[in-house]
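Readers outside the structure-tokenisation community will struggle with the description of the input data as it stands. For illustration, here is how one protein appears when written out as sequence plus structure tokens:
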Amino acid sequence: MIKNLIKKIVFYFKFYRNAKIISLNRKIPILKKKKILIATSSGGLYSHLVLESVLAAGLRNRGIEVHFLLCKKGLSSCIIPDNHKINEKEYIKNGPKKFCNSCFNVGQNYLNKSGFEIKFIENASNEELKRYLDIIEKNLNFESVKQFTYKGIKIGEHAISGTLRYYKITEYEKEKYFKELIKKYLLSSMVTVDHFNNILKKEKYDSIILNHGIYVPHGVIADIAKKEKINFVVWCPGMRKKTFSFSPNDTYHRQSIYEDNKNWENILMNEKKNNLITDYLESKTESKSIKKDNWDNEWVYTPTSSIDDIDKLFKDLNIDKTKPLIGLPTNVIWDAQIDYPANFFNHILEWIFCTIDFFIKNQHLQLLIRVHPGEVWVNKPARQKVINEIFKKYGSLPSNIFFVKPEQKYNTYRILNKCDNILIYGSRLGIEMSALGKTVIVAGEGFIRNKKIAIDINSKKEFQDTLSKLPIKEYMNDEKIKRAKKYAYHFFFRRMIELKVLDEFPSEWPNFRVNKNFFDILKKKKDKGLESICDSIINNENFIFDEIE
């Protein structure tokens, strides 16, 4: 008890120290040129508060008026709870109440100490709640929840995303109380729509900054901004340490797929840039040590590998070196499920089953399925696991289909590097593997889609036709590899912007803090990444920063 109390005191001391540093420029005069809202919404997202307060301080330093948005304990469901933190019955009955006090109080205290004005998503009145529930009861069809719309906002998509995030499975319909949970997310979405619109009637914002861009309430806020034609920016952590990626007017996931190729096609790749991306890719695939991969550049605290001997793995699996080997890295099934115009499979499992069906009939080919290590992450273990779903459907599989399980500590990049071709659905791995010269076939929302690098599949028939051509040889010629490396450089070193004002603390959460010299760095504009981000927010420009140029 005393030990936990001391831990809590130490945590809050370190956490609020960030706010104290941020507050040093609170007296900068506001020039009223622009007004920006940062829609943190959930004060319990501690790392988000730190990052967003850094952005706000950078904007405030330029005389920009910055407000924050927080939920005032008024939502019946939100982004904070999941089935590991609160059981289904309690969540249905009480909503996220067990988190509300600490979530709201910490967020409000932090932002007050930082010196920012806060706007609130207020509690709905009993009359409002009754009206919302009446609308839900009259209009909700569980067969078409995604299409559920309120005041022009498709809140059904966010209700489904929230439900998936809570259950951590795709087949949420098998859960006992899923209908009640969907209703709670719809209710919270309606509260968000009305209360956020009320804020927008009183305040004219030039831009809105928010995290995630999906789920409740963040996805609803993004859609309202889109409907009202207010510029908005969605951010997420990058892969490289202390980096963050910013997407204008869409989610990170969609923007990565549909970004205009003109943003990167004409990059002049000099020797320094080529060496930088080559070294970065090699840091993932070539290790001097069997025990530890070189993840020094990454936000990775539980590396995907500690075993280097892929040849031994292949021997143990009884993979035939004389036959073509096709690699298939999976995603965490439930994660970030949003609508993509290009999707023709209902979900990743349908795609995996379709692929397995083909390999069952074509045993002259071998399929190696690398299950995402994230399925067994300690903090967010998936309840629905790929291998379980496969054996539930097939019982047994022929000897030409192999698995590397999520708990097996092998480097995914090295495994795929030994495959002839790679099949992906939504994996980011397509970027790295294409740049390493591998032919990648994209059947879902992989970020390498639409780049004229991988083989983009646009229908189930086209997928079957492409599978029938495996292994595909001589697709990745020198020009394509050059193009793939150029895009990889853009993705990892131009779109992921490093903030030098942050200090990393890998063993703690939040895993970064504001540098104690922040105000001096800000005043003298020493952090070029932060300056670039602020410029892009103010001028509504793409968030691209090349430190080498």
Remarks:
- The chain has two domains: 2-124+202-261+497-539, 265-493.
- The first helix runs from residue 2 to 22.
- The domain at 265-493 is CATH 3.40.50.2000 (Rossmann fold).
- The radius of gyration is 24 Å.
